[in-house]
Each structure stands twice: as C-alpha cells, then as structure tokens.
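DM between two lab members

TW: hey, do you still have the Amino acid permease entry open?
JB: yeah, one sec
JB: this one, 433 aa:
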Amino acid sequence: MMALGGAIGAGLFKGSDTSINQTGPGALAAYLLGGLILLFVMQGLGEMAVHHPQARTFRELIHPLLGPFAAHLTGWIYWLDWVLVMAAETAASAGFLTYWFPTVPVWLLALIVSVVMTVLNLFQVGVYGETEYWMSGIKIVVLALFVIFGIILLFTGFHGQPAPRFSHLTDAGGFFPHGLNGFASSLLVVMFSFGGTEMIGMTLGETDNPARIIPRAARGVIFRILLFYVLPILVIVSLVPWNHLGAGNSPFVTVFQSVGIPYVAGVMNFVMLTAVLSATNSGMYAASRMLYTQSLSGQAPRFFTQLSNRKVPIRALLVSTSFLYVGVIVAFFAKGNTFGYLMTIPGYSVILVWILIAAAHLKSRSQRKGAPHSSTGGSVIGSWFALFALVAIFIGVVATTPIWGTIVMVIVLALVTVGYFMQDPKRRTTDSN
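TW: and the structure you got?
JB:
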C-alpha cells in the first residue's frame, strides 16, 4: 500500500492529461512500457533484498555493489526527488482545500497541511503505515469503480449515443497522432508517475522479515500498478476522444462530466486531495529515511542520525519537512503551474535511480555466479532490458524536454558530485553496514 500510495498520486490524476495530449491513445503503450521496465526493476530489487538482509534502504543495497559514489548519488537525488514532490503536492493540497474553504488564505491551508503531515510522521512508523493504508485505499476504490463503470459505458453507450467501444483509439489521428516524438516526450511523465513504487526498498530496516516480505510486495505491486494505471487510461481514451480532453484539466474530471455524473467537481476534488496528501505522507517517509541512512553512512552530517523515543529519525524528518514551505512559495509565484515546474527533476531522478537499481542487480548476479538463485523472479535478461530501455528513455527525454529542465538537473548532479569529492576520503568508503 505504501508503494501504491507513492505511485498513484498527482502523476496519474493530474499528469495523465499531459501524457495523453503528447501521445494520444498511444499513452497506453507508454504506460505499458513503463510498467514492464518497473516489473524487472522491482524483481531485481526484491532479489537483492533477499541476499543483503542487513540493508535498511535500497541505497545500502547499491553501496556494496556499485561503490560509495553510486550510493552517495542515489541517496541525494532520491532525497531531492521526494522533497520536491512534497513541495508540489503540498501546494496542490492547499489549492484543493480552497474548494471548501474559499475565504481561508492558501498559505494558511498549506501551513495546516504541513503541520498535520509532520506531526503524523513523528509518531512511530506503524501510525504512518496505517494512515497511508487508508488514504491509498480511497484512491484504489475510486479507480476500481471508475474502471468498472467506464467499461460498462463502453459497451452500453451514454446520453443516447451508441456504444463507443474502442473506436476512439484510432478515429482522431490514429493511435500515435504525434508520432515517435510525442511518445518519447510522454515518457518523462510516465516515469514520474510510476516513481514511488521503489519506496518498498526504503522499508527494509523497519519491516519484519524483509527477505520474505519485500520480494512478495515487489511482485504484487507491479500488477496492481498496471491495473490502476493502464486500465483507467484505456477507459479514458476510449470513452472520450483524446483531443477532447483538454490540457491542464484532470482527464478523470473531463470523463465524469462527459457522461453526466453529478457532483463530479466535489467528488474528484476530495479524491485528488486524498491523492496528494498520501503522496506527501509517503514523501516524508522516504526523504527522512534516505537522509538518515546518508548520515549513518557518512554522506551527510551526523546531526541527522538522531532518533526520537519512537525510533523516528526526527532531525532528518524536520529538515526534509522544511521543503513543504518551499512548495507554498513556489505555488504563489508559479500561478498554478507548480506541478509542471517541479516535475522535471523528479522525473529525471526516478530514471536515474532505476538505472542504478538495475545495474546493482546485474552486479549482484555476476558476484553470485554458480550460486543457486532465489525464487524472487529477478532475471539477468530482465535487468539488461530495463537498463537499456531506461538509458534510451533518458536520451529521448533529454532530446524532447525543455532545455531549462535538463540544465537544472545537470547542475544538481554537478553539485552532488562536487559534494562527494569534497568529503574526507575516509568518509567516502564508510558505510554503516
């Protein structure tokens, strides 16, 4: 449920309009490709968890396999990924709350959300997990009902119109109306949307019997992700022609309005508020645990190793939480475009983290040649496919993404690299394991 909570958020409810407008019905192929890559990455992650039971996060799976620099890079870009996502989601949540509280200042709503989310994460991890379970559950129930209701309408019709079935997949310029360039452009959104699934690898240190639980969770979540992404997208582009959806609007709202569902604005506002709060909650967990393990490994100040009485990394959590207020500032100046402005770096970060996980799995297999393989499902062929596909997607995204986003990501990577080489050489090879 944590992985679903991290992956099913604004990227689906909000970002899917971008991928559909860039690719048309071919967005289905983009999500299927992303899901296949995710399957192989998560299988490799699960297998590494079995063979490295001492690791607390996937950063500590990467360190002994790819070296301290790869672990350092993974830790910092993943932390940056989630603090930026938290900033974007917090600003979005304040916007959704104004629907019911139009007279309350946005900054005050954002402050309330930030404080509530922070306090929630200060409790022991079980409280966080239970909260995330129920918030994720709301999203999943809504998506399941959307798919069931949508499939019925596909074959029965609505507003006296004949059943569209799947004619809209090709009747508005074909399946790929914008060609390969549009398909490549949409992959950044797709990868951003699926980002968060790898959060399973952040729970190794707080999961009972991770060698058994993590591989099982990794296998199961893949099919649920595909179920709650591919099927809703299929329903959307089949019920309504892709060029009628309109950029900047949630395609779910557009579909509900098209078929005449009453109170759609209030219902979807609640669902999308739940989605962004869930993603913020997940982001706090991931960012604080990554900063904590970076500190334990000597890649961040020891200041962040402090644990509360409930065994929560309180200093790492509070510092990560400070980025919630950055989201409020960005939202004020971005005039509603916070999601678009803050999506580029997390999209790049997800691709890079998955590349490192796939590469680490391949290295793990090469070190265990001749040893019996576990039944986690991880395979060399799958990881090689994921690695090559991710590198190709990365190149395609660089070629089709606005240059400012790529420049910002290059600057971030340069700063992280400089930070690594400015450390004491002894600390570079230090690892808490």
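TW: got it. The CA atoms of residues 179 and 307 lie 52 Å apart. The mean pLDDT is 78.
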